[in-house]
Structure formats: structure tokens, C-alpha cells
Amino acid sequence: MTTTEPFGVYVHWPFCLAKCPYCDFNSHVRHAGVDQGRFVAAYLRELAHFATLAPGRTVSSVFFGGGTPSLMSPETVGAILDRIAELWTLSGDAEVTLEANPTSTEAGRFAGYRAAGVNRVSLGVQSLDDASLKALGRMHTSEEALAALAIAKRNFERVSFDLIYARQRQRLDDWRNELSRALDHARDHLSLYQLTIEPGTPFAALHEAGALVIPEGEDAEAFYLLTQELCDVAGLPSYEVSNHARPGAQSRHNLVYWRGHDYVGIGPGAHSRITQGGVKHEVAVRKSPETWLDTVTAKGHGIEHDETLSPQESADEYLLMGLRLAEGIDVKRLAAIDGRALDQQRIAQLEAQGLVKSHKGRLHATGAGRLVLDRLIVELAA
Ligand SMILES: C[S@@+](CC[C@H](N)C(=O)[O-])C[C@H]1O[C@@H](n2cnc3c(N)ncnc32)[C@H](O)[C@@H]1O
Ligand code: SF4
Known about the structure:
- With 382 residues, this protein is an alpha/beta fold.
- 42% of the residues lie in helices and 23% in strands.
- It has helices spanning 36-53, 74-87, 104-107, 110-116, 130-135, 142-155, 172-185, 202-208, 217-233, 252-258, 289-299, 311-322, 331-338, 344-352, 367-371, 373-381; strands at 7-13, 58-66, 89-100, 120-126, 158-165, 189-194, 238-240, 243-245, 262-266, 271-276, 279-285, 303-308, 329-330, 356-359, 362-365.
- Strands 7-8-6-5-4-3-2-1-9 form a nine-stranded mixed beta sheet, sandwiched between helices. The chain has a three-stranded antiparallel beta sheet with strand order 10-11-12, with no helix packed on it. The protein has a three-stranded antiparallel beta sheet with strand order 13-15-14.
- Strand 1 (7-13), helix 1 (36-53) and strand 2 form a beta-alpha-beta unit.
- Residues 22-23, 25, 65-66, 68, 99, 101, 124, 126, 162, 164, 193, 195-196, 198 line the site of S-adenosylmethionine.
- Iron/sulfur cluster binds next to loops.
């Protein structure tokens, strides 16, 4: 590993104003309020601890994710960025993203975030249809979402937004119209997620009871293919299964994960990958916000898991993440991780089936391959 490799810092803010019924992220509602001052002090302490685990690096990207990080005050965001710059070198052109929910109060803070050092916003629009937003349990209308998007565009050069598709009762033509409208509003990046029924969520219970019917199987595939087609035409091709960008506008932070580089994650439930002495460590901190807070207050960090990854586990992870990307994986790099030479006969078979393509030392999944990515990864890792 060279220190010139990209290196990211992820900051998890685990609170939301309401819990959306489809969501299984580490996000919590605290009606009694959150003591932001105590949390900020804990973030600053945990950052200092992680700087001892990954010293001397140059931070190429910072990502405030959640939960709803746009509930953090700009001062909190600024204090965290200042501490990152003190502990590491913050690259002059670092990408600093904040995930925001499109309610008017939060959009009002965008100028403050920009002044604090944020230079990219990712907005959770989810849908441009009011009935669907209601069914998704969202607290904003499509008009509010578009207003927040306009404020984001005024404040930031780089703006992305998220939509969820293949929703309950959604027809392919509805999605065609909705995505076409969304593309008219898109700046340089879009995240388009197919609705996933996550175990343990209210949506899972409804789905199980037959009260929530979503496109599945070939129907879901048709939504995915239409999404690719419309985005390609609009000049925002997918560079990852669910992420689309104009050339050069990919999320540099998310590429750190998918390209298998190091990152530290602080805040409740955050994960890190840190290479020490040539060995990759998988580190995770406590998930419950209050337990995390108490642990950091007592010990200076909330780490509850620090395991080394074997070369084979590291290589599997690189394969798993890299095949999500349109650019695929670097075959030599994979071999350098665990000495593995991919089975050429199996690759030839998968190529003949139109699922993968080898080109100039790289291997990537084709459009058809991406539809069966889990199977591909199992076959290639075997
Ligand atoms: C960390 S979440 C949320 C960010 C922000 N709190 C919001 O809701 O706008 C990031 C994105 O994941 C997507 N997401 C969350 N749960 C999902 C699910 N079950 N299926 C598909 N997409 C989901 C949503 O598009 C969401 O904006
Ligand atoms: S989707 Fe966003 S706002 Fe809704 S519960 Fe999850 S993290 Fe919170």
C-alpha cells in the first residue's frame, strides 16, 4: 500500500426525525432530542483514536451519512472537518459529501454546510410522486424535494439525489415518466435503488402478509433495464449497479469502498478497513447510539470488533465490490492480494454466456451479468 492511494473518512449520524418503514439502516428516532454537544465531543475523540490506527494518510474524501446527517448543525460538521484536517492531511481537492433529507428546515442549512467545508450533497428525494412518498412514509412532498434540490444546486457544484423504484403498485410506464422528469433535474449524479424488502422492517411484515406487492423477478428486471436505458441516453450511465454519473462525476468516496481502498468510519455502527503492516483489518464500532456514546466517553473509541482479514477474505471482498463497478476488477491486483489466478476456463464459459468480459487486464460484469451478480461472484470466487 502506498500513502498516495485514496483514503476516505466516513462519519455516521444515526438519528432521523421519523423511521421510514422500508429502512434498516442504523437510524433511530429520539423524541426527547439528542445532546449534540456530547455526541460531537465523542466524534472528535473517536477520530483521534482512529488517526492512531491509520496515521499519516492523506484524506481524499469525507462522507457524512446516516441516518440523517442534515440534522447536524453546520458547526458540528465544521468541527468534525477541522479535526480531520488536524489529524491527517486533508487533500486540497477532497470530496466532502453530506447526505440530506429534503425538508425545508434542513435545506436552510445548506449555505452553512458549504461554509463548513462540504462541497457535495446527496439528497434523499426517493420519489417525485406524492402518493408514493406518503406510502414510503416520507415527511416531504415532491414539491419540497424539488425546492430542496434547487437550493442544493445553488449552494453546491456537485449534487446527487436518490430515488427508489420498483415500488408498490408502480407500473413501468409510471417509472419511465418519473425517471424522465428526474433526469431533467439531475446535475451530475443519481443513485437509483430498487426497493429492497429488508427483514424486520414494517415493509417486510406487509410484504409477507401479501399487503405490499412489488415488481419481482422478470418484472423487476424490466425496471432495471429501463433505468439503464434512460440514464444512458441522458448521459448519466451507471458506473456501479445503482449509481449513475456524468463522466468524471462519480462519487469518489464510494469508489474508495468499491475499489478496495482503506477508510475509517466513525460514529455508531460505522465500519472501517485499515491496512496495518500489509494486513487488512476489519473494524466496527458499537451500533447503539447511546452505548457507543458511553463507550467513547469512557475509552476514547467505540470499537467492538477488530479482526484481520485473511488474503483470501480480502480478495473475495475485492471481487465482490469490484464487480459492482462498470470498470470491474484489475485481475493482476486480485492475484497480488491472495496469489489467486482466476479460473480461465470458467471465465471463458461466463464470457460465452455473455455475463462477463475481459479487457486489457480487467474483468467486468456485462449488463446481463449484473442481473445475476450474486451467482457470478460465487462462481468466480469458487
Ligand atoms: C442512508 S439512506 C438515507 C439518507 C437519508 N436519510 C434519506 O432518507 O433521505 C441512503 C439511501 O438508501 C436508500 N434506501 C434505504 N432503504 C432502502 C430500501 N429498503 N430499498 C431501496 N433503497 C433504500 C434510499 O434511497 C436512501 O436515500
Ligand atoms: S431512509 Fe433515511 S430518513 Fe428514512 S429512516 Fe432511513 S435513514 Fe432515516
